[in-house]
């Protein structure tokens, strides 16, 4: 009698475990299929980023339900588990403060949508393409092919620039010309350079701003617009063309000038004029003359 | 290579041509020169652009002995290479914003037709089986933005026009397709036009026997409120042969949107 009861209980246990395993397996399968289906449907209607989020959400929700049922099969009471989780959550909450903060920031980021997958963003000194936007962090690929993980919390806190949100961009060329140059002529030369460059947009028109009188140069800002994709190419070709045009027109881009003033009380600076004689003749006489007679 | 005085009278350059093995052909359509050679199992293609405006009237079709050394030669390898090729004009892939050289004003109630030409691409194609080898720009036009703000609008190409209103005034160039643009001013005020967007991706190219290229006429109606510039694409020019389909099938909404800000200037 006892033996048969024990064997029955063992059989029950085996059945329960089998059921739990079966349930977990089915759960994995169903979750994967449902997530894929949801992703397909969502992809048509939402952005790549949101459909990826929906896929993950569906996957983990379905898997969670099946896992809970499997635990029930094994005899765990869900209410006890949840109760224990409630007590634990206080402790976990303290321990996982950073993660929780990142998680909440992640939710805000998803809602605010400052960038999408594939956008190029700049955070601090890091510029790169957004590879994924996850609950805890955003992953970037920089242009030198490094993988950078930026916690969501710091993204929310700091300034972030999205370089690819709008289809056209402006390039500001800051340049100085010598004081003797004619600003009107410089302006014409710059505008001609922009007009000849096919990457430089005709409209919005290039902008010429005379920003002021610098220490050694007249400062100029010349701003031209370009298609987002050809920004880098424009920056190179424009600067090269400006240098070439200035050289051709004889417009000087000055180096910093320094004037030394010795004060009104001092004698003028001695200036030595070097005659165009062979260098070897000069030094032999100097020391002779300077000797006291 | 033969050094003959170029004959610049316009003639159709888009007819298919059979070419023998090892034969080299040189074609010049305005500023672009194309060299094609058929070999046993491949075609060679090289091209170059001549930016000087005096080359804009060239139409050359000749057999040459070699492809110039300084050009990069592209190889297209086939198991059984086609024997026939064709150069085909195609309009550009973005609308063209033309600025008038002088401001043009149309008084109330007037209707006027301007002839505006835009450069075409030369598509180098082989026949049987049909293969597009390359599309060559004859002129590289400057990019421009056409829209109410730097956030909303579309990328276009920019060029300038004399806005000629006599057909006979048009200089005939082999690499430009002419679009007759009819503008009717139905409002009470004078209509000033400084810029005009020609939606070339929606137009077809037609060729005349005299070697000129045309597109369908485009007509625009300007009414009292600026936002409703009604645009229509007209019928195929009489006596012309369709050479290339429109890049984008005309969708009424797209076309109208492209034109709306023309009058808002």
First and last CA, distance of chain A: 139 Å
Radius of gyration of chain B: 20 Å
Rg from Cα of chain A: 37 Å
Count of helical stretches of chain A: 8
Spans of at least 5 consecutive residues with low confidence of chain A: 282-293
Helix-residue proportion of chain A: 40-55%
The total tally of domains of chain A equals 3
- Mean pLDDT of chain B comes to 82
Number of strands of chain B: 20
Please give the oligomerization state of what you see: heterodimer
Secondary-structure element order of chain A, N to C: HHHHEEEEHEEHEEHH
Number of domains as seen in the coordinates of chain B: 2
Low-confidence stretches of chain B: 260-265
Run of helices and strands of chain B = EEEEEEEEEEEEEEEEEEEEH
Helix content of chain B: under 10%
Beta-strand share of residues of chain A? 15-25%
What is the strand arrangement across the widest sheet of chain A? 4-3-2-1-5
Pfam families (chain B): DUF432
Organism (chain B): Hydrocarboniclastica marina
Protein name (chain B): DUF432 domain-containing protein
InterPro entries (chain B): DUF432 (IPR007366)
């Amino acid at each position: 009698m006892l033996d048969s009861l024990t064997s029955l209980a063992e059989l029950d246990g085996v059945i329960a475990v089998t059921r739990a395993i079966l349930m977990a397996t089915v759960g994995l399968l169903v979750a994967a299929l449902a997530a894929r289906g949801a992703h397909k449907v969502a992809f048509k209607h939402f952005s790549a980023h949101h459909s990826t989020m929906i896929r993950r959400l569906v996957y983990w929700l379905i898997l969670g339900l099946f896992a809970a049922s499997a635990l029930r099969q094994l005899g765990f009471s869900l209410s006890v588990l949840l109760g224990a989780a409630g007590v634990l959550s206080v402790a976990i909450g303290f321990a996982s403060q950073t993660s929780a903060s990142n998680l909440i920031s992640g939710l805000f980021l998803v809602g605010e949508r400052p960038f999408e997958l594939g956008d190029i963003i700049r955070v601090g000194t890091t510029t790169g393409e957004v590879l994924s936007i996850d609950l805890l962090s955003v992953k970037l690929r920089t242009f030198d092919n490094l993988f950078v993980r930026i916690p969501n919390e710091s993204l929310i806190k700091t300034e972030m620039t999205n370089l690819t949100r709008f289809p056209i961009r402006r390039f500001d060329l800051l340049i100085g010309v010598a004081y003797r140059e004619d600003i009107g002529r410089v302006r014409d030369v710059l505008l001609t350079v922009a007009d000849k460059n096919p990457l430089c947009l005709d409209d919005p028109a290039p902008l010429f701003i005379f920003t002021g009188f610098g220490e050694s140069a007249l400062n100029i800002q010349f701003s031209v617009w370009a298609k987002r994709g050809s920004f880098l190419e424009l920056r190179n070709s424009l600067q090269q063309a400006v240098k070439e045009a200035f050289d051709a027109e004889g417009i000087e881009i000055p180096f910093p000038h320094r004037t030394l003033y010795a004060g009104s009380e001092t004698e003028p600076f001695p200036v030595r004029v070097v005659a165009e004689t062979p260098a070897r003749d000069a030094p032999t006489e100097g020391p002779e003359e300077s000797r006291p007679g | 290579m033969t050094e003959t005085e170029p004959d610049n009278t316009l003639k159709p350059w888009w007819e298919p041509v059979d070419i023998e093995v090892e034969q080299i052909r040189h074609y010049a359509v305005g500023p672009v020169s194309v060299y094609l050679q058929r070999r046993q199992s491949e075609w060679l293609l090289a091209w170059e652009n001549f930016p000087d405006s005096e080359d804009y009237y060239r139409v050359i079709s000749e057999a040459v002995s070699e492809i110039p050394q300084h050009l990069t030669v592209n190889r297209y390898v086939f198991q059984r290479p086609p024997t026939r090729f064709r150069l085909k004009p195609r309009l550009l892939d973005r609308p063209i914003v033309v600025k008038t050289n002088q401001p043009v004003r149309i008084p109330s109630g007037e209707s006027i037709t301007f002839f505006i030409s835009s450069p075409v691409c030369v598509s180098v194609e082989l026949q049987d089986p049909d293969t597009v080898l390359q599309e060559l720009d004859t002129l590289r036009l400057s990019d421009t933005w056409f829209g109410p703000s730097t956030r909303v609008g579309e990328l276009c190409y920019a060029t300038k026009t004399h806005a000629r209103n006599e057909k006979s005034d048009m200089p005939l160039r082999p690499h430009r397709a002419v679009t007759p643009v009819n503008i009717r001013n139905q409002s009470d005020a004078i209509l000033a036009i400084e810029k005009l967007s020609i939606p070339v991706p929606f137009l077809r190219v037609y060729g005349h026997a005299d070697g000129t290229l045309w597109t369908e006429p485009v007509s625009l109606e300007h009414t009292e409120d600026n936002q409703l510039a009604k645009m229509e694409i007209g019928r195929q020019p009489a006596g012309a042969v369709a050479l290339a389909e429109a890049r984008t099938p005309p969708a009424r909404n797209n076309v109208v949107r492209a034109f709306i800000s023309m009058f808002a200037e």
